[in-house]
Predict the structure.
Amino acid sequence: MTQIAPNISKYDFAVEPFSEDCLGCLSWPLLGNLILRAATLHATEHGFGYKQVINFNHAWVLSRLTIDMDEMPRTAEAYSITTWVDRLYRQFTDRHFAILRPDGTAYGYATTVWALIDITSRRPTMLDQLPDGGFNAALVPDLPCPVSAPARHRMKNPVKVSEHRANYTDLDINGHVNSIRFVELLLARYSKADMEAHPVKRIEMTYAYEGYCGELLSVYEEHVDSLTTLYEVKKEDGTTAVKGVIIRR
Amino acid sequence: MTQIAPNISKYDFAVEPFSEDCLGCLSWPLLGNLILRAATLHATEHGFGYKQVINFNHAWVLSRLTIDMDEMPRTAEAYSITTWVDRLYRQFTDRHFAILRPDGTAYGYATTVWALIDITSRRPTMLDQLPDGGFNAALVPDLPCPVSAPARHRMKNPVKVSEHRANYTDLDINGHVNSIRFVELLLARYSKADMEAHPVKRIEMTYAYEGYCGELLSVYEEHVDSLTTLYEVKKEDGTTAVKGVIIRR
C-alpha cells in the first residue's frame, strides 16, 4: 500500500500466471475480487474495516458495483488499484477505484455503494448522522469517480437461461454467496468466441438480497442490443437477489 | 520470491480479505491457483517456464495434483509456498510444494506431476533424454515431498450427480478448462454444513483430457466412506477428462 494523497491508497498488483482469462487478460472475477480487497484494506487503514465495525455489531454490505474498463491488463503487466471514499449520504457511502498503469494512465475505473447495517436488526445506519462527524475525516470530498452512472434499463421480456444451486464454493466468510460469484454467474453466459469478438467493457451489479448455501438461483436474461445484456438472479421464492448489466465493446 | 536453498524458491502470501471460504480459511481453489502460480514462477526463474518452452513449440501439461493440508491458514495469517523439482523420469517430472507458516512449520504439502508436450503433435518429450542434461541442473534430487501416494481407489458404482457446460469463466489462457476449475466442480458437491462438520484435508486430481468451451462436463461420484469420495468428470462422448478424490477430516 502507498498513500498517494490524504485518504487515497494505492495497492500494486501484476497479472500473475493463472490469473488470466482465455483472452490473455486479467480475469474479470479476479479484478472484482481485488477491488473488494482494496476496499477492505483501505477501510481498515482508516478505522472502519469489517473487523473494526463488527465490534459495534455492524457490517458493511455492498449495494452496487460498477466496473468500467477501456482495456484490461495482460499477462505480467503491472497495475494498481487506487481507492477513496468521496461522500456519505443517508445510509450510503460511495467508494471509488481507479485501475491504473504504472505510468498513471487508466485501464478503467470502478465505483461502489455500501451500506453499514446493524447485524442483529439488519437495519442500515444513517451514515451522515454519526456522532463526532463519523467517517467524515476519511473522505476525499472533491474527487468523484469518472464512471458514468448506470443507464436505466428495465427488463420487459426476461428469459430464464440457467439455474445454479449455491454450494460451498460460492460462499464468502459470512456464509453468503459472494458478490463476485454473482458476477461469474452472469459471465458464464458467454463463450470464448463471444468474448473474442466483443470483450466485456462494463459490468453493473445491484445487490438486493443475500444468497445462502443450498438456495437455487435462477438467472434471467434479456438482450438490449448485441452488446448490452440485462440480467436478474432470482431466488426460489421469486425474490430478486441481484440485477446486473454486462456491456461488451 | 526468496531462494531459500539452491533450486528451492519461496513465495510469500497472506490470507487477504475476500480470499477465504465460509470457514474463514484460505479457499481451496485459491490455494490450488497459487500452487500453480508458484510452479510457473519457479520454472521461469530456471529457464523452463511456459514462455520459455513455447519458443521450442512445447507446453507444460499438468498430469496430477495432490494437496494435503493438516490445517488451512486463516484470515490475515501469513503463509508461504516453497517449491522445487526432485526428478525427471521418462516423460514426467515431479514438482513439490510445502505450504509453511512464518515459523517454518507446515500447514501442509502438495505434489504435482507434469509432462512437456510438443504443441503440434501433442506428444510428450522424454525429459530424461534431453540434450546437455536438460533440466537436471534445476533439480533438488534428495528432497522428495512428504505427501503420501494416492490410495488406489476404483469406482464401482459411480452415480452422475451434476452437469456443467464449460464457458468463458472456466477457461485458462490456453482456452482449456482450467485445472483448478475442475477442483471447484468437485467441491461444489459440498454444503457449508458438510464442510463445517468435516473440512477438506486432501484433494487428489488426475488430469486425463483437456476440457473445451461449450463442452458438457458430467460429474460422477462414489462415496468410499463418510469422509472419502471419488469423482470422475466425463465429456459428452464418455471420455474421462479428470478423476478426483476428496478426503475430509
Chain A has four helices and eleven strands. The first helix of chain A runs from residue 28 to 45. The longest strand of chain A covers residues 106-118.
